[in-house]
Amino acid sequence: MYKTKLNEAVKAFEEEMEQLKLDLYSLKRRAFVPKQDIPFGTVLTQEMFEIIEIKLDIPQRELLDESDIGKINTVFLPSGIPVFKMSVADEKLENDLREQEFNMFLIQTNQNKGDFIDVRILFPNGENYIVLSKKQIKDIMLEDNTVRLWLNESEILNISSAIIDAYIHPGTKIYVAKYIMPELQEAAIPFYAANEDVLDLMRKDPNIVDKASDALARELRAALERNLNSITEENISKVTTWVSEEISKNKEIIQSHELDKTGKEDAISETSDGEDAGLFN
């Protein structure tokens, strides 16, 4: 009787273990995991991911796979976390989309690659217009005040017109405004209209955009030089003196700590010598 019950218990245990193995096997998933954080709005490539096997109680069809490569992520993708299909969307590239480089915008000091921005134009009379809306910075060189954007033909025409507007109206600035949470914020509606006179000028002189771009870039650099030159020799001397004083103070503090440490070590050594002498006596 006991043996029969024992056999039944063993059999039930083995069946339960077999079921657990089957359950575990059924949870095995193939997941795409980002090697590094992927900013919102990035075109996904195979090289961005590591493919791993993981246990997940989620259908395989809901996880990212090879068919999603080339799509764009609609949310920020942290490294090390499996990506779901609902986190990406089809984003067909327009045939007239081109990468454009600009070095005449006023860009923010905390600007980063991957940021979403509006490009705006500010006229001397205070009128402020959005020229380009919610464009992602594809590349940035802060030291050169240069950004790269992907623009279609209509956007290229608009920004070209704005550059010439800024060139022929002294005091006009083209600057960028960064989106705080691009995943949640809708794109603003551009309401800058290309000036007819500017369009005529572009038709008459195909090189006018390059001339205007160069002039604005030079103006930005000149403004920086003026700001640097406005620092008087007296102020430079004050800064130099302050830095020297801070360095001297730091040296004194370090030397003081070293002397204290040496004194403590000497005191410990003397105490130890005294104890040793007492033992021998």
Please count the helical segments: 5
Largest sheet: 3 strands, antiparallel
Rg is 33 Å
Helix content: 40-55%
Q: Looking at the structure, what is the overall shape? A: flat
Uncertain regions: pLDDT < 50 for 5+ in a row?
none
Report the sheet-strand fraction: 15-25%
Number of strands: 10
In what order do the strands lie side by side in the largest sheet?
A: 5-9-8
The computed structural class is alpha+beta
Number of domains: 3
Q: Layout of helices and strands, plus pairs?
A:
Layout: H1 2-26, E1 28-34, E2 49-55, E3 72-73, E4 88-89, E5 98-102, E6 116-122, E7 128-136, E8 139-141, E9 146-151, H2 153-168, E10 173-178, H3 196-204, H4 208-229, H5 233-280
Antiparallel strand pairs: 1-2, 3-4, 5-9, 6-7, 6-10, 8-9
Description:
- With 281 residues, this protein is α+β, with helices and mostly antiparallel strands.
- It has three domains: 2-89, Type Iii Antifreeze Protein Isoform Hplc 12 (Alpha-Beta Complex), CATH 3.90.1210.10; 98-229, no CATH class; 236-262.
- 43% of the residues lie in helices and 19% in strands.
- The protein contains five helices and ten strands; from the N terminus they run αβββββββββαβααα.
- It has helices at residues 2-26, 153-168, 196-204, 208-229, 233-280, and strands at residues 28-34, 49-55, 72-73, 88-89, 98-102, 116-122, 128-136, 139-141, 146-151, 173-178.
- The strands form four sheets. Strands 5-9-8 form a three-stranded antiparallel sheet. A three-stranded antiparallel sheet has the order 7-6-10, with helices on one face. A two-stranded antiparallel sheet has the order 1-2.
- Strand 8 (139-141) and strand 9 (146-151) form a beta hairpin.
- Helix 2 crosses helix 4.
- The longest helix has 48 residues, at 233-280.
- It is flat, with a radius of gyration of 33 Å.
- 18% of the residues are buried.
- The mean pLDDT is 77.
